[in-house]
Design goal:
This protein is of the alpha/beta class. The protein folds into two domains: 122 residues, Rossmann fold, CATH 3.40.50; 187 residues, Dihydrodipicolinate Reductase, domain 2, CATH 3.30.360. The chain is built from ten helices and 15 strands. A nine-stranded mixed beta sheet has the order 14-13-12-11-7-10-9-8-15, with helices on one face. Strands 3-2-1-4-5-6 form a six-stranded parallel beta sheet, sandwiched between helices. β11 and β12 form a beta hairpin. α4 runs parallel beside α5 and α5 runs antiparallel to α10. It starts with a strand and ends with a strand.
């Protein structure tokens, strides 16, 4: 059992705690820290039976803590990963890892030097339906992969407090890209390999905060397939992910993390109806298996930290995901196709 500290206790930090506390046999939270301390946060910590520390540095100095879990703004990730590694802590970082390739490389290098485990919160990789899709692609069952596309939507930006960090364009460039779209980017990398180039257009149509609400991105993968991702933060909630091959297509449907949804719903109801349409023959449809993906990703991290199997997301994929995110943001600014370096 690894003793962990949660850093950041917004709605998602609390969700991570709830996914494993008193449930997992491999990881538990014994401490926490947050930039904004409130009676609500203190009550949550008491209910979940962990102590609140003065700040992040106090957690790093605590020898009883073996790992830190970062649920903090993106701009803080690289520095916090580097500091945690230097303190000898295993570190799990929520997505997106960083917004630049250079920051991602620096964070990875720090964990390599320290010999600690680095985990990353792309929890949808761990869902059984993504595993089935990955196996179907790698076995050749779908034939040559032609195209992959995703649409991810939620209404959260319609209701967000203008003072919240997610309302800051510098923290959340390209609207829904960082809170949800990067999950799809990671899935494309996982299933289809590295991304060669991107083109992004990102707009603000209706939200009051200074953040985009409608973003669309075109991709070209290095090994041939094309891709598309659309995110909207000011419409009804939804998620779809579809892979088209020369033998047929698979479509996964589900939900995004909607503000106000219960913790259990956010963790277990991301996938719903699934479909496979072969080139010849009738379509097949089924309901997705249920899995607490937040628990699954944290337990995979804990197992790796304990000397078990390596964390399933490679350093190369972590860095390439950050490089792709950087290129997408750059394309939205330049209005041009941008290479992923």
């Amino acid at each position: 059992m690894i003793n962990a500290a949660i850093v950041g206790l917004g709605w998602w930090g609390r969700t991570l705690v709830e996914s494993v506390q008193g449930r997992s046999e491999t990881i538990r939270f014994v401490a926490g820290a947050t930039r904004t301390r409130s009676p609500e946060v203190d009550a949550f910590a008491a209910a979940q039976k962990f102590a609140m520390a003065a700040d992040f540095n106090a957690l790093l100095a605590d020898k009883q803590i073996g790992a830190v879990v970062l649920a903090t703004p993106h701009s803080m990730h690289a520095g916090q990963v580097i500091a945690a590694a230097a303190a000898g802590k295993h570190v799990f970082c929520e997505k997106p890892f960083t917004l630049t390739k250079a920051d991602a490389e620096a964070a990875v290098a720090a964990t390599r030097r320290a010999g600690v485990t680095l985990g990353l919160g792309y929890n949808r990789r761990f869902h059984p339906e993504m595993t089935k899709l990955r196996d179907r692609i790698r076995s050749g069952d779908l034939g040559t992969i032609l195209h992959v596309e995703a649409t991810m939507t939620f209404p959260n930006a319609l209701f967000i407090d203008p003072g919240h960090w997610r309302a800051d364009r510098d923290e959340t460039p390209c609207g829904g890209l960082t809170p949800m779209g990067v999950h799809a980017v990671d899935a494309m990398i996982d299933l289809c390999g590295e991304i060669e180039q991107v083109y992004c257009q990102s707009l603000r149509r209706v939200v009051k905060v200074k953040s985009d609400d409608t973003t669309s991105i075109l991709f070209r993968m290095k090994n041939g397939p094309s891709g598309y991702l659309g995110t909207m933060t000011a419409t009804g909630p939804g998620f779809s992910f579809q892979v088209f091959g020369s033998n047929g297509w698979v479509r996964l449907e589900g939900m995004t993390h909607v503000a106000g949804a219960t913790s259990q719903e956010r963790r277990t109801r991301l996938f719903g109806t699934c479909r496979f349409q072969p080139v010849k023959g009738a379509a097949q449809a089924w309901e997705a298996e249920r899995l607490d993906v937040s628990c699954a990703v944290l337990e995979a991290f804990a197992a790796a930290a304990a000397g078990g199997p390596s964390f399933p997301i490679s350093f190369a994929d972590m860095v390439h995901g950050a490089a792709a995110t950087e290129a997408i943001i750059r394309s939205a600014q330049t209005g041009k196709v941008e290479k992923v370096h």
